[in-house]
């Protein structure tokens, strides 16, 4: 017979009652009816490092068994002893290691320790980096920061346990033991890769492997930014910037097809911005919201979603119509912004905003006709006619020239010959480079645009990039070291040295979705896919191969994937074959 004390009896009752409570919990705790639970569509995968970039002690006195940290982990501590990574410090030496996980990812680290450690195991410093040199940096030096995400911090590891830490964009990680006179043994270090597990429905390949790699790098850059919301950067900024979204959304249309992240992010921007405020405080970003709505509808054909935007859309169009003077000149207030490299050229900004007003009201007329609002559609048309009375100069700006051409305020041929085709890829930018490519295509200069892609975006790949950057200046290439290696003394550290405005030095984001323009551009103008009817019900195939011999790929539609192939004959003619799903009409 068991003899229970009063204390033990109360404990058993508490356990029994807790079991009843647990049994009454819903089987799916994150159900839609529970407003206190937030779910996510993201997946975690754990990746082992591919190589060791650097050891503080290459002779093995203070860093032992380093190569074993490259072995795949299981994420579980155990009681076994083994030849594990061991960091040994004395009163002077603090050992460290830099790991390369092979490509840029978003997430953090999983670290598993062993029984051979003290309790707790010891304090370490972790520095995430988008370049090797960023892992060697100190905060507040050469632009290095902990803005938006912590990438440089100290943490204590547990004895015989597991710890997960980090929420940033990185490829490289430096770990240093901070405690003096300590022996720290680590069984596993894995990168926790947080992403949407979605298929790449769109594809592109041709006889130029450089273009193929650029297309895929743009797609992957946007994929990393498709978190719970559509960010523009996974290290900095982890925010929904609406203008930055436009190239990203076009890449999503091209590669992934319909995805909730676009609708969630557009709705968030709308709900956070009661009129007459501008989205993100920037007037052009409210216009980009309208342009994205038009493009999203044409690619996805979701009328129900568009109808849900009607009230805000119409009110925003009416607000924008008040921002024009009697001569047809835009007088937009708020932050007057196109992109950072053009931000000091006020004439270029005006030309760009004037052009965007024309593009926005043209899109507004289309959307309002679809929504059955004839009065607002007519307002949009008369507003376009008024805006066309004022045609600004290009102001020597490729950004302004591109938008003037796209809006029809200026001949694309004139914009191309006088500005866009001048001085190679100098004065291009990663964001507005997309629109420069479009304007060059409108002028029929497809080969010029293809060569811009090879030279400008390809240069980032030559420097070791696995995602495209917030900005890039071709002049930075001169004597620059690769970002995936230690910087030699006779080379320039491109990450520490360059950058401007809000992205100086290491604050510069090396994974920025607005830089993905070549991905959708190559699909639209080289593979030749042009959407003619909402929902891709009718698409046109009109390829422009430039100097390519062949190109093939796939394109996602709401009805399925279209398979396409073009081959260039010796006489310059192109033979096209395709396979389209039922419900999709293809014209040439």
TrEMBL record:
Annotated InterPro entries = 6-hairpin_glycosidase_sf, 6hp_glycosidase-like_sf, Bac_rhamnosid6H, Bac_rhamnosid_C
Q: Per the database record, which ranges form the Alpha-L-rhamnosidase C-terminal domain? A: 528-583
Could you tell me the superkingdom of the organism this chain comes from?
A: Bacteria
Q: Which residues form the Alpha-L-rhamnosidase six-hairpin glycosidase domain?
A: 201-526
**GO terms for biological process?**
carbohydrate metabolic process
Per its record, how is this protein called by name? Alpha-L-rhamnosidase
């Amino acid at each position: 017979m068991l003899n229970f004390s009063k204390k033990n009896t109360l404990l058993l009752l508490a356990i029994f009652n807790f079991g009843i409570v647990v049994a009454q919990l819903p089987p799916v705790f994150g159900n839609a009816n529970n407003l206190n639970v937030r779910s996510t569509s993201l997946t975690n995968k754990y990746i082992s490092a591919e190589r060791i970039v650097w050891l503080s002690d290459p002779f093995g006195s203070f860093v032992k068994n380093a190569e074993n940290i490259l072995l795949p982990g299981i994420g579980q501590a155990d009681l076994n002893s083994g030849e594990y990574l061991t960091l040994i410090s004395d009163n002077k030496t603090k050992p460290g290691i830099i790991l390369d996980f092979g490509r840029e990812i978003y997430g953090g680290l999983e670290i598993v320790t062993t029984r051979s450690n003290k309790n707790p195991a010891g304090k370490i410093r972790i520095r995430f980096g988008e370049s090797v040199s960023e892992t060697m940096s100190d905060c507040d030096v050469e632009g290095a920061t902990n803005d938006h995400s912590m990438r440089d911090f100290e943490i204590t590891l547990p004895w015989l346990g597991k710890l997960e830490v980090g929420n940033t964009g990185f490829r490289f990680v430096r770990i240093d033991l901070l405690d003096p006179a300590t022996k720290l043994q680590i069984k596993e270090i894995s990168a926790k890769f947080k992403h949407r597990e979605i298929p790449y429905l769109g594809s592109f390949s041709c006889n130029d492997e450089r273009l193929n790699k650029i297309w895929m790098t743009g797609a992957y850059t946007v994929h990393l930014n498709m978190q719970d919301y559509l960010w523009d950067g996974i290290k900095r900024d982890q925010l929904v910037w609406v203008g930055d979204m436009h190239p990203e959304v076009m890449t999503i249309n091209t590669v992934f097809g319909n995805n909730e992240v676009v609708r969630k992010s557009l709705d968030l921007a709308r709900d956070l911005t009661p009129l007459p405020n501008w989205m993100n405080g920037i007037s052009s970003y409210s216009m980009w919201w309208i342009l994205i709505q038009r493009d999203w509808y044409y690619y996805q054909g979701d009328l129900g979603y568009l109808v849900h935007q009607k009230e805000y859309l119409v009110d925003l169009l009416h607000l924008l119509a008040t921002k024009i003077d009697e001569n047809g000149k835009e007088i937009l207030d708020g932050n007057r912004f196109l992109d950072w490299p053009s931000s000091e050229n006020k004439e270029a900004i005006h030309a760009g905003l004037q052009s965007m007003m024309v593009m926005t009201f043209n899109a507004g007329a289309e959307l309002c006709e679809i929504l059955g609002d004839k009065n607002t559609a007519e307002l949009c048309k008369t507003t376009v006619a008024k805006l066309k009375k004022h045609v600004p100069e290009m102001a020597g700006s490729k950004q302004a020239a591109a938008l003037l051409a796209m809006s029809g305020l200026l001949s694309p041929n004139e914009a191309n010959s006088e500005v866009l085709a001048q001085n190679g890829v100098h004065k291009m930018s990663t964001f507005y480079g997309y629109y420069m490519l479009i304007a060059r295509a409108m002028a029929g200069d497809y080969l010029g645009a293809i060569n811009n892609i090879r030279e400008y975006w390809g240069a980032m790949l030559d420097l070791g990039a696995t995602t495209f950057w917030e900005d890039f200046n071709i002049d930075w290439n001169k004597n620059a070291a690769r970002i995936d290696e230690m910087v030699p003394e006779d080379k320039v550290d491109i990450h520490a040295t360059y950058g401007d405005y809000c992205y100086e030095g290491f604050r510069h984001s090396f994974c920025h979705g607005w830089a993905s323009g070549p991905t959708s551009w190559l699909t639209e103008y080289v593979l030749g896919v042009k959407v003619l009817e909402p929902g891709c019900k009718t698409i046109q195939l009109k390829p422009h191969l430039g100097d390519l011999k062949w190109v093939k790929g796939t394109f996602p539609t709401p009805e399925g994937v279209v398979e396409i192939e073009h081959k260039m004959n010796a006489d310059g003619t192109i033979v096209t074959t395709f396979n389209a799903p039922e419900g999709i009409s293809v014209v040439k």
